[in-house]
């Protein structure tokens, strides 16, 4: 047994190998599951039951901590009480959509900074989140903006300041104030790097500050600044404390674009912390002996995380989604990526990267009712010459999938042949209703 075995038994008491394989649906009365910690991609138009058929069941049944992004309250309404019975629930809601919920918590990127390297990484994530890269010249100013932001973040984090102070320093170009804080810390290396970074000619200064202001504009919202200082605070150490804790990351439906950089800052920093916490996971045993053995034999305590990116293309299109998809299982992260269609992925990541993102999901669900030609092409490729039971007669496979009855889906997982499966329903499935603590009579 690995060094983390006894601690990991806390998770293993909650389920077996199947528990760590999320449910995708049913076929002929048998449960269809994803590969253990294998990323799952769910494609379907609005109201096709992506959330109630896949995301909510996964949240209700997952035996570990979870993060879910969404623009809809129904995810919270259907899972919060069930998740609360086994852990703490936290809601990150910078738009103030859920002000009446008592579980809202504050969060600041400064909480992730303990060193100069942390400041540089956080600056890169923040600028990348709010500034999509373009040509060589644009990339030059983006890199300069990252180098400029880092000292301000470092000074605020180490000097017990706030994001409001960071925005004030940048708005007034108060480099001397930030530099004085860093120098007072006795961090000679940080002070020297900051001095070099903050020294540039006046012409460059104006362009770099402009580039930086554009990239971090979301932090000018008073609601965002207030949330950065709010108590209680979201803390990774508290979240990964061995309980089934849940963080709901909620975007306002009518202001997704404005708040997007906030979410695409939080999630990469969150993921980085999970990777660090789960670095001892014995992922090489997943295919050989299953998830329970992998957890049991890990070198250090592992917190198996469910990460459901509902509305992934609009709420939090994280820049390095491709990297997350290809490496999540190595950190005991069960990833669910939910998008409207392939074209949405292409619009965010470009055609080549979108193709790689799709291909690296070990399970793909295509739900009916869509009209996207790129998704139709993917469906044809997934089916090949197969005609699984339940596929309606039609001129093409893509047309057959489009006219599938609501509640069914094309499912391709691992090396298994394509199947038409029945999605579960969080408002009708007796097992899911029981987990929610409601009965059929409540609907």
Report on the structure:
Mean pLDDT is 89; it is low at 8-13 and 133-137. α5 packs across α9 (202-215). The protein contains 20 helices and 11 strands. It has helices at residues 5-12, 50-61, 73-84, 116-130, 136-158, 163-172, 175-184, 188-197, 202-215, 222-229, 236-239, 256-277, 286-289, 291-296, 321-327, 342-349, 351-359, 373-383, 397-402, 430-436, and strands spanning 23-27, 30-33, 40-43, 66-70, 89-92, 246-250, 305-309, 333-339, 363-366, 408-413, 419-422. The longest helix is centred in the N-terminal third of the chain and has 23 residues, at 136-158. It starts with a helix and ends in a 7-residue tail after the last helix. It has 2 domains: 5-106 and 234-442, Rossmann fold (3-Layer(aba) Sandwich), CATH 3.40.50; 110-224. It has 443 residues and is α/β, with parallel strands linked by helices. A 9-stranded mixed beta sheet has the order 5-6-4-7-8-3-9-10-11, sandwiched between helices. It has a two-stranded antiparallel ribbon with strand order 1-2.
CA radius of gyration: 23 Å
The biggest beta sheet is recorded as: 9 strands, mixed
CATH topology of the largest domain: Rossmann fold
Strand content is: 5-15%
Would you tell me the overall average pLDDT? 89
Task: Give the CATH superfamily of the largest domain.
Answer: P-loop containing nucleotide triphosphate hydrolases
* Total count of helical runs of at least 4 residues: 20
Low-confidence stretches: 8-13, 133-137
Q: How many domains in all?
A: 2
Pfam families: T4SS-DNA_transf (PF02534)
Keywords: Cell membrane, Membrane, Transmembrane, Transmembrane helix
Organism: Actinoplanes missouriensis (strain ATCC 14538 / DSM 43046 / CBS 188.64 / JCM 3121 / NBRC 102363 / NCIMB 12654 / NRRL B-3342 / UNCC 431)
Family: Belongs to the VirD4/TraG family.
């Amino acid at each position: 047994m690995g060094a983390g075995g006894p601690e990991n038994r806390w998770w293993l008491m909650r389920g077996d190998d199947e528990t760590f394989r999320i449910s995708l649906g049913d076929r002929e009365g048998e449960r269809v599951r994803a590969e253990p910690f294998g990323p799952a991609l769910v494609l379907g138009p609005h109201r096709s039951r992506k959330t109630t058929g896949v995301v909510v069941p996964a949240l209700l049944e997952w035996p570990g901590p979870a993060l879910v992004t969404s623009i809809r309250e129904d995810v919270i309404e259907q899972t919060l009480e069930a998740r609360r019975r086994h852990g703490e629930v936290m809601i990150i809601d910078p738009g103030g959509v859920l002000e009446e919920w008592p579980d809202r918590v504050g969060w600041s990127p400064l909480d992730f900074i303990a060193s100069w390297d942390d400041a540089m990484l956080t600056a890169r994530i923040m600028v990348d989140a709010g500034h999509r890269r373009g040509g060589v010249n644009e990339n030059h100013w983006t890199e300069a903006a990252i180098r400029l932001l880092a000292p301000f973040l470092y000074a605020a984090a180490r000097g017990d300041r706030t994001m409001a102070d960071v925005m004030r320093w940048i708005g007034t170009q108060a480099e001397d104030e930030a530099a004085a804080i860093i120098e007072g810390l006795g961090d000679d290396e940080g002070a020297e790097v900051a001095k070099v970074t903050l020294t540039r000619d006046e012409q460059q200064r104006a362009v770099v500050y402009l580039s930086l202001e554009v990239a971090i504009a979301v932090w000018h919202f008073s609601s965002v600044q207030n949330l950065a200082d709010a108590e209680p605070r979201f803390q990774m150490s508290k979240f990964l404390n061995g309980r089934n804790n849940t963080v709901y990351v909620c975007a306002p439906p009518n202001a997704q674009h404005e708040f997007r950089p906030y979410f695409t800052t939080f999630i990469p920093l969150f993921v980085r912390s999970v990777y660090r916490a789960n670095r001892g996971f014995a992922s090489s045993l997943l295919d050989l002996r299953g998830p329970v053995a992998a957890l049991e034999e890990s070198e250090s305590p592992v917190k198996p995380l469910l990460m459901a990116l509902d509305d992934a293309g609009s709420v939090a299109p994280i820049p390095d989604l491709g990297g997350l998809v290809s490496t999540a299982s190595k950190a005991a992260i069960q990833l669910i990526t939910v998008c409207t269609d392939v074209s949405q992925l292409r619009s965010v990541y470009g055609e080549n990267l979108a193709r790689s993102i799709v291909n690296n999901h070990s399970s793909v669900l295509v739900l009916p009712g869509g009209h996207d030609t790129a998704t139709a092409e993917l469906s044809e490729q997934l089916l090949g010459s197969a005609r699984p039971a339940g596929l309606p007669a039609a001129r093409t496979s893509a047309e057959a999938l489009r006219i599938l009855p609501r509640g069914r889906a094309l499912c391709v997982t691992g090396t298994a042949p394509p199947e038409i499966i029945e999605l579960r329903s969080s408002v009708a499935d007796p097992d899911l209703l029981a987990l929610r603590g409601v009965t059929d009579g409540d609907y």
